[in-house]
UniProtKB/TrEMBL annotation:
Belongs to the DegT/DnrJ/EryC1 family. Keywords: Pyridoxal phosphate. InterPro entries: DegT/StrS_aminotransferase, PyrdxlP-dep_Trfase, PyrdxlP-dep_Trfase_major, PyrdxlP-dep_Trfase_small. Transmembrane segments: none annotated. The keyword Hydrolase does not apply. This is dTDP-4-amino-4,6-dideoxygalactose transaminase. PANTHER family: 3-OXO-GLUCOSE-6-PHOSPHATE:GLUTAMATE AMINOTRANSFERASE, TRANSAMINASE.
Length: 373
């Protein structure tokens, strides 16, 4: 019963080629500019992007770094968190959040998430606090912000630093405040597939604390003093944003707001058309979500993905094994996290791109409806 007028072309999970194609002429110019002047690390392009990104995030300043994992590590290092300290984070996150904690020598303490949003549970954070707890990481997963009001209250009550992992949430808001602007410091990733993606690796730290930003900038540039490049007051490392990537990001940043709006339209269409056995993760009305991923819960994931495969529709699982169950973190294994663990077996990421058409969303929905039969 295949009809020739029905579009059968594949629908990718993320259409990165199409996203970058929309700015290809500007990207060519940026590339030629940097290649022409020959400075490939630091310089005017990086400074320009840092100010534009800080303005976008409605925050005092930003420091470009090599990737999102480094950004989180550098925030923790800048806050002087290290050996002997515990850092609370959700079990439901990308592995990098936990790697950053271990990279500074602190101990990750995994806690459970809220059933409806799958984001860190502020009550679980409070319950996990000990005399060694130094910080909590609010991961704004899937493009939705964690409950910053309650997390700020918990952090305030116990004197903890509140770090934001905003790698999936460029432009999201909680009660009107941008991701990356209400904690002590935040880490962003510009990995190509993120809402704001470079043509390679990249990342940034944002904060309203200029002293913290200065310290992070020094650590990320070999511990150099700001006045004498041959004087190293502290032991640092190398984690810088490439000039070329900064130029690329400056081309793409002005389009981010409309792309995020487009992601919201796609998500709204999913909510309107998905069959009842495919349930999107809830959106808290206080969050203006930027839908990095379109995550749903399904009853039978194996048969659901077979139906998507038959229709050449891309999908992903973010993430099939929670961090606290990964062999790499076995030594930190603590209590079971029932909501995180149950969700890991049922979540599924549907195609989500700012370039997706309403027709494509409907094709995904009907493939899922057919798959249920
Ligand atoms: C992508 C991501 C990171 C790490 O970013 P990289 O740039 O890949 O190092 C950290 N946390 C979350 C939640 C992410 O999705």
């Amino acid at each position: 019963m295949t009809t020739l007028d029905v579009d059968q072309s594949p629908i990718p999970l993320l259409d990165l080629a199409e996203i970058n194609r929309t700015v290809s002429a500007e990207l060519d110019l940026a590339w030629r500019g940097v290649r022409g002047h020959g400075h490939f690390v630091g310089g005017a392009e990086v400074e320009r992007f840092e100010s534009a990104f800080a303005e976008f995030c409605e925050v005092a300043g930003a420091v470009g770094v090599a990737n999102g994992t480094d950004a989180l590590e550098l925030v923790l290092a800048g806050l002087d968190i290290g050996p002997g300290d515990e850092v609370v984070l959700p079990g439901n996150t990308f592995i990098a959040t936990a790697e950053a904690v271990c990279a500074v020598g602190a101990v990750p303490v995994f806690v459970d998430v809220l059933e409806d949003t799958l984001l860190i549970d502020p009550d679980a954070v409070a319950a996990a606090v000990t005399s060694r707890t130094a910080a909590v990481i609010a991961v704004h997963l899937y493009g939705q912000m964690a409950d910053m009001d309650r997390l700020l209250a918990v952090a305030g009550r116990y004197g903890l630093a509140l770090v934001e992992d905003a790698a999936q949430a460029h432009g999201a808001r909680w009660s009107g405040r941008r991701a990356g602007s209400s904690g002590h410091g935040a880490g962003f990733s510009f990995y190509p597939g993120k809402n704001l993606g470079a043509l390679g690796d990249g990342g940034a730290v944002t904060s309203n604390d200029r002293e913290l930003l200065g310290r992070i900038r020094r650590i990320a540039d070999h511990g150099r003093s700001s006045t004498d490049r041959h004087r190293h007051d502290i032991r640092g490392r190398n984690s810088r944003l490439d000039t070329l990537q900064a130029a690329v990001l400056s081309v793409k940043l002005p389009h981010l707001e409309s792309q995020n709006a487009r992601r919201r339209t796609v998500m709204a269409e999913y909510r309107a058309t998905l069959p009842t056995h495919v349930v999107p993760v809830a959106d808290d009305p206080r969050s203006e979500t930027v839908h990095h991923l379109a995550v749903v819960r399904v009853r039978d994931r194996d048969s659901t993905v077979k139906a998507l495969d038959r229709s050449a529709i891309g999908w992903g699982i973010h993430y099939p094994v929670p961090c606290h169950r990964q062999p790499a973190f076995a030594e930190f294994r603590t209590a079971a996290l029932p909501i995180t663990e149950a969700a890991a077996g049922r979540i599924l990421s549907l195609p989500m791109s700012p370039t997706m058409t309403i027709d494509q969303v409907r094709r995904v929905a009907s493939a899922l409806a057919r798959g249920a039969r």
